[in-house]
Design brief:
Structural class: mainly alpha
Strand order of the largest sheet: 1-2
Oligomer: single chain
Shape: globular
Radius of gyration: 22 Å
Length: 311
C-alpha cells in the first residue's frame, strides 16, 4: 500500500496483479460460457472499482490498461465487442473517482454515464479512423451481422420472417435507450455491491447511505408527460427521441420504486429468503417490473415512505 522512492512494496504489486487476474477470469467466463457471460459482464467493472479505491488512481489505471491490452491480444484485433469491454473497465474506474470525491448517488450515476458515453464515442471515432469508414457505415455493418445471427436463431425457434423483421426493426428503434439503461443498471449494481463489500469491512460511504430513500427530482414528471405527448405527433424523429428518452426515465423511476421496496423490507425486517424471492420476481416478471416503476412514478404524489414526515 505504500510507495517508497521508486520501489513498490510486494503487497501493492500483488494487489495490482490480482485485480488484473480477476478481470481476466471474467473475460474467460464471457468467452467460454456465452450464456453465463451475459451476467458476468455486470461484474466486470467491480475489480477495477475495488482496487481503484484501495490502491489509488494510478494503480486503477494500470489494471484497466493491462487488462484491455491483454484482451486485445486474446481477441487478436479491435472491434465493437472489445470497445464495449473497455467501456465497462472504465466504468469501474470512473465510479471510483466519484466515490473518492464523496459524490452522491445522482452525481455519481450521471457523471459516470456521461464519461463512459464520451469515452465510447471517442473510441468509436478512433476505430472508424483506423478502419477508414464513417460511424454510420460501421454501425450499419455491425447491425447487419447482428440481424444475420438473430434471423438464424429466430428461424430455429420457429418464428416467421415477417415477425423477425418486426423484432429487428423494434430493436433498432429503441437501441439507444436500451444501451443507456443497460449501462446505468451496471453502474447501479456495482455501486450497491461495492457499498456492501465496504460495509462488511467496516467502511461506510456517507454520501451513499440511505439509498432506499432515493427520490427522483419532481420536475422529471413533467418530462415524462411532455415526452408522452410527443409520441402522438406524426414526426418520426420526435417519436424516436421520445421513446428512447422515456426508456431512460423509466429506469430512473424503477430505481425509485426499488428503493421503496427496499425501504419497507428494511422497516419490516423481512427475512432474506423473502427478499430474494421478491427481487427475483421483479427481475423475471414484466408485470411486476412495471408495478415497481409505477410505484416510483406515483411516489412523487403519494410519498409511500413518508420521507418528508420523517424529516
Amino acid at each position: 500500500m505504500q510507495v517508497t522512492g521508486n520501489s513498490i512494496k510486494a503487497p501493492y504489486i500483488r494487489d495490482i496483479i490480482l485485480g488484473i487476474c480477476l478481470c481476466m477470469v471474467i473475460f474467460a467466463i464471457i468467452f467460454a460460457f456465452p450464456l453465463i457471460g451475459v451476467f458476468a459482464l455486470i461484474f466486470l467493472p467491480l475489480p477495477v472499482l475495488f482496487y481503484r479505491l484501495k490502491l489509488g488512481r494510478n494503480s486503477g489505471g494500470i489494471i484497466v490498461a493491462v487488462s484491455f491490452a491483454a484482451l486485445m491480444v486474446m481477441t487478436q484485433g479491435f472491434g465493437f465487442d472489445l470497445l464495449y469491454f473497455g467501456v465497462l473497465l472504465m466504468t469501474g474506474f470512473l465510479i471510483g473517482e466519484c466515490i473518492e470525491r464523496q459524490m452522491g448517488i445522482e452525481r455519481t450515476m450521471i457523471l459516470t454515464g456521461v464519461g463512459i458515453l464520451g469515452l465510447g464515442l471517442a473510441g468509436l471515432l478512433v476505430y472508424s479512423g483506423l478502419q477508414g469508414q464513417s460511424l454510420g457505415a460501421l454501425f450499419s455493418d455491425y447491425m447487419s451481422q447482428y440481424f444475420t445471427m438473430s434471423r438464424q436463431v429466430y428461424s430455429e425457434m420457429g418464428i416467421e420472417e415477417q415477425q423477425i423483421q418486426m423484432l429487428n426493426s423494434a430493436i433498432v428503434f429503441v437501441l439507444p435507450g436500451m444501451f443507456t439503461i443497460s449501462l446505468m443498471s451496471t453502474v447501479w449494481m456495482n455501486i450497491l455491491i461495492m457499498k456492501r463489500l465496504l460495509e462488511k469491512k467496516g467502511i461506510r460511504l456517507k454520501n451513499l447511505e440511505n439509498l432506499n430513500h432515493y427520490q427522483a427530482p419532481d420536475h422529471l414528471v413533467w418530462a415524462v408527460i411532455i415526452l408522452g405527448i410527443l409520441l402522438f405527433l406524426p414526426a418520426d424523429a420526435l417519436k424516436y427521441l421520445s421513446v428512447n428518452c422515456l426508456i431512460v426515465l423509466m429506469l430512473v423511476y424503477f430505481f425509485q420504486g426499488i428503493a421503496i421496496v427496499s425501504f419497507f423490507f428494511q422497516k419490516k425486517e423481512s427475512p432474506t429468503a423473502l427478499k430474494v424471492f421478491c427481487y427475483s420476481l421483479i427481475a423475471v416478471q414484466l408485470y411486476v417490473l412495471l408495478l415497481v416503476i409505477g410505484l416510483g412514478f406515483f411516489d412523487n404524489w403519494i410519498n409511500f415512505r413518508k420521507l418528508d414526515t420523517q424529516k
